[in-house]
Amino acid sequence: MADVTDTPQTSPLSYTTGVYTIVVPDNAIEFILSPTTDLRVSDTVGVATYDLVLANTKESIPCAAMQNIYVQRDASNGTLHFRFTIL
User: Fold this and answer.
1) How many CB atoms lie within 10 A of CB 45?
2) pLDDT, tens digit (0-9, with 9 covering 90-100), for 33-46
């Protein structure tokens, strides 16, 4: 699975200290993710406000009205497995 950027973010995505932008496909309605370490997930550039997805859990985030999803590690580097539900 990959997002829709010119240079796609693909799953699994290894993350370190930066903020990673995942571009939501136009017809996506759900973003399903499972990180190996605690991961901050936001719809705000810079991840000023975020939801925390715990390590080794699987979460589903509605994304029909979103253009971008921003992810950033909480405390440790890890790997993010993700996919979109597409209509």
Assistant:
1) 10
2) 999 999 999 999 98
